[in-house]
Amino acid sequence: MGAFVLLSDSPAATRRIGRRLARHLRAGDVVLLQGELGAGKTCLAQGIGEGLGVREQVKSSAFVLVNEYEGRLRMYLADLYRLSEPAEVADLALEENAAGGVLVVEWPDRAWEEMPRERLLIRLRWLDDRSRELSLEPEGARARELTEKLVTKSGRRRR
Ligand SMILES: Nc1ncnc2c1ncn2[C@@H]1O[C@H](COP(=O)(O)OP(=O)(O)OP(=O)(O)O)[C@@H](O)[C@H]1O
Ligand SMILES: [Mg+2]
């Protein structure tokens, strides 16, 4: 299975994709959100939070690398943008600490080597003011299953 592409034409559409993904998530799942500043990573994470029943406002924070949110499942949102060195992330033991919930990571590219091997990678690409391309790149059987669920009906397989 290769990459799948979804198109979003508004922040609301991106959040909706997050909510749909969240419906299928379970404890131990890992979702990596890669993309430039303003690509929509946090927006997508907010949709995932909504779908997990998080009532609090989901945000990425300037000083805290990992935020925890209580929902149907606990969501751990890590934003590695300000990571000074990749080794720092090892100390966070992300995978271990988030095992009881869903781990979502913004800026995984700050520490690729430290990221869980089994994960659903979503690359967000800026197309124009309102449009984003979301490319789903699953690693592992569980992530492939999630991708299948998410792209059924609305997804397009990339050539
Ligand atoms: N289709 C879209 N999907 C998501 N965001 C969009 C879309 N169209 C416009 N936007 C705007 O793009 C911005 C995305 O911001 P967001 O904080 O989600 O990005 P980010 O990738 O988390 O950036 P950062 O790296 O700074 O954390 C918001 O201002 C949002 O309103
Ligand atoms: Mg962000």
SSE blueprint and pairings:
Layout lengths: L3 E5 L2 H14 L5 E5 L6 H11 L14 E4 L5 E5 L7 H6 L1 H4 L4 E5 L12 E10 L2 E9 L1 H11 L4 E2 L2
Parallel strand pairs: 2-5, 2-6, 4-5
Antiparallel strand pairs: 1-7, 1-8, 3-4, 6-7
The structure holds adenosine-5'-triphosphate and magnesium ion.
Instruction: Supply Rg.
Output: 14 Å
Task: Assign an overall shape.
Answer: globular
Pick out the low-confidence regions: none
Give the tally of structural domains.
1
Q: Note the beta-strand portion.
A: 25-35%
Distance between the termini: 11 Å
CATH architecture: 3-Layer(aba) Sandwich
The DSSP helix count reads: 5
Q: Determine the fraction of residues in helical runs and give it as a percent range.
A: 25-40%
CATH hierarchy, class: Alpha Beta
**Bound small molecules, deduplicated:** adenosine-5'-triphosphate, magnesium ion
Major sheet size, sense and barrel closure: 8 strands, mixed
| Content-based structural category | alpha/beta
DSSP strand tally = 8
Please, what is the oligomeric state?
A: single chain
The run of helices and strands is EHEHEEHHEEEHE
Tell me what the structure shows.
There is one protein chain. The protein is of the alpha/beta class and 159 residues long. The protein has one domain (4-153): P-loop containing nucleotide triphosphate hydrolases (Rossmann fold), CATH 3.40.50.300. The protein is 29% helix and 28% strand. The chain contains five helices and eight strands. The chain has helices at 11-24, 41-51, 87-92, 94-97, 141-151; strands at residues 4-8, 30-34, 66-69, 75-79, 102-106, 119-128, 131-139, 156-157. The chain has an eight-stranded mixed β-sheet with strand order 3-4-5-2-6-7-1-8. A hairpin with a 5-residue loop joins strand 3 (66-69) and strand 4 (75-79). 42% of the residues are buried. The model has no long low-confidence stretch (mean pLDDT 92). Magnesium ion (MG) is lined by residues 41-42, 60, 106.
